[in-house]
Design a protein that fits this description.
- By secondary structure, this protein is of the alpha/beta class.
- The protein has helices at about 1-15, 20-30, 35-40, 60-65, 80-100, 120-130, 165-170, 210-220, 300-315, 360-370, 415-425, 455-470, and strands at about 55-60, 110, 135-140, 160-165, 180, 185, 200-205, 225-230, 235-240, 250, 260-265, 270-275, 280-285, 290-295, 320-325, 345-350, 375-380, 405-410, 435, 440-445, 450, 480.
- α6 (about 120-130) links the parallel β2 (about 110) and β3 (about 135-140).
- The radius of gyration is 28 Å and the shape is elongated.
Length: about 475
């Protein structure tokens, strides 16, 4: 019986080995890169099957078999030890890429390792090899091992790797569609060929100034998505006619930014997080969705601008998403209301939604956006609500005839929240749908949000006001409470 079972297993192994290379290559592609490489010991025929793997992810786990945590004192590593590990990493990746060049097309190339200028020749060669194999996605993050100040070793300046567009344009055919760079220097010296296939670019903590970025964009004629995160050498950002295909622009925490000048005929989505800057939308006729989150000491001015002038400067704007931080209860809005007739959806996140808020901004919104159809309020009330001081909220009646859907998240049934909801029910005369939840919805951009479930205590508080909601909300309104 044992011999029969052993024979059956050997027959199955033989059948697997006899499969065509194309089938084996597909099977290999479903394995993580590290596991795919391990199949090379199965037999002589399997020795180089792994070189067909189309998704190359090089990081400390895949290459060194461990994640090095330099923030942990228990994982103390000397400077020499780090250099040895980097050397091992480079040697293994280099060996892998030499064999992988013999394989078919590469779809995805990812390198996550703290490598700098001294490793440039290797990194350039790996990228060139991937480009020759018609790579479509490159993710280069050289910041993963940068956090080792706690290892008690002397910290010396580490010269960053300089990414050159030449490495992508040396292949016969440009195939790259997505480029993601982090913690390096962007060298946009004009390459012999434009990056005509490039659709998406994300730069995070990349050293690039205004002129360099402009030069880079000029060789990316089909670029549709541009994300700039912590690019602190940018001061005066200008998008001109070379960005005619750009559809999404996202800017976050670029601390030295002062002005943003936009001329982009197909721009649809604009996202900005950071300190108040000067915006100029010279030509953005398709811009329909905007997200603004202002930080720093002038955030009040930023929020005032967002509610008064931003939508007017972008007549095509349909959806506006605003994050207010420590601003609403002291917000000073002008007596003369700037109306924006085209805005259809407003998402407003209020952190914190203080119990001293007099809600003046609510009536201003009703007047400023007369054709608003959907309003989403994300409330972040303090955990501790002080005893009410008898705050008098004298809000003018402002009937709104187009608003049909209201969503309130983070509703716990506090007195000032109930006053807000009461005012909404009184003035939103055409309301069809009302959603009230204890969950907190945290937005990070246009259609980018996470929902944090409310604690059991807050859920109980919401349940306690459910009966009140059922009694005050007209039967003609579809009410959802959860």
């Amino acid at each position: 019986m044992g011999r029969a079972r052993k024979g059956t297993l050997m027959d199955e192994e033989d059948q697997l080995i006899e499969l065509p290379d194309g089938i084996l290559s597909i099977m290999i592609s479903f394995l993580p890169l590290k596991e795919a490489i391990r199949t090379s010991v199965l037999s002589k025929r399997w020795r180089y099957i792994w070189t067909c793997h189309s998704k190359l992810c090089f990081d400390s786990i895949n290459i060194l078999g461990m994640r090095v945590d330099y923030n942990s004192v228990s994982n103390y590593q000397s400077l020499l030890d780090r250099q040895i590990r980097r050397g091992m990493f480079i040697e293994r990746v280099n060996h892998f890429m030499q064999h992988r060049c013999k394989g078919p097309k590469i779809d995805y190339f990812s390198l996550h390792c703290h490598l700098g200028k001294e490793s440039a020749s290797y990194i350039d060669q790996w990228i060139r090899d991937a480009a020759i194999k018609e790579v479509e996605y490159i993710d280069l993050d050289l910041s993963e091992w940068c956090t080792f100040r706690m290892d008690q070793c002397s910290f010396t300046a580490y010269e960053q790797y300089e990414f050159s567009c030449w490495t992508l344009s040396t292949s016969i055919k440009c195939t790259i569609k997505n480029l993601k760079l982090a913690s390096c220097i962007l060298n946009p010296i004009p390459s012999p060929n434009k990056l005509i296939s490039l659709k998406t670019v994300e730069l995070k903590d990349v050293n690039v100034n205004d002129q360099q970025l402009s030069t880079f964009l000029s060789i990316c004629p089909q670029l549709e998505v541009l994300s700039l995160v912590v690019c602190n050498d940018l001061v005066n950002l200008k998008l001109d006619v070379s960005c005619h295909n750009l559809k999404v622009l996202s800017i976050r925490d670029c601390s030295r930014m002062e002005t943003i000048d936009i001329y982009a005929e197909n721009l649809v989505v604009f996202e900005y997080t950071g300190e108040v800057v000067s915006f100029s939308f010279k030509y953005a006729p398709m811009l329909a969705e905007g997200y603004l989150s202002f930080t720093g000491e002038h955030r009040l001015d930023g929020l005032t601008y967002a509610l008064t002038k931003f939508a007017n400067s972008v007549p095509s704007l349909q959806t506006l998403n605003l994050l207010s931080i420590l601003a609403m209860k002291v917000l000073k809005l002008p007596e003369i209301v700037h109306t924006s007739p085209n805005l259809k959806c407003l998402v407003l996140s209020i952190f914190p939604f203080d119990d001293e808020d007099k809600l003046y901004w609510l009536s201003y919104i009703f007047e400023a956006f007369p054709l608003l159809q959907k309003l989403q309020l994300n409330l972040f009330s303090p955990n501790f609500i002080r005893k009410q001081k008898g705050i008098e909220r004298l809000l003018p009646d402002c009937p709104h005839k187009h608003l049909t859907e209201v969503e309130i998240n983070g509703f716990y049934g506090n007195e000032h929240e109930i006053e807000l909801l009461t005012y909404l029910l009184k003035n939103v005369v055409e309301l069809k749908v009302l959603v009230v939840t204890s969950h907190q919805k945290v937005h990070r951009g246009v259609n980018k949000w996470v929902q944090e479930e409310g604690s059991s205590r807050y859920k109980l508080r919401l349940e306690s006001v459910r009966e009140w909601l059922l009694s005050v909300v007209p039967k003609t309104i579809h009410l959802k409470v959860h």
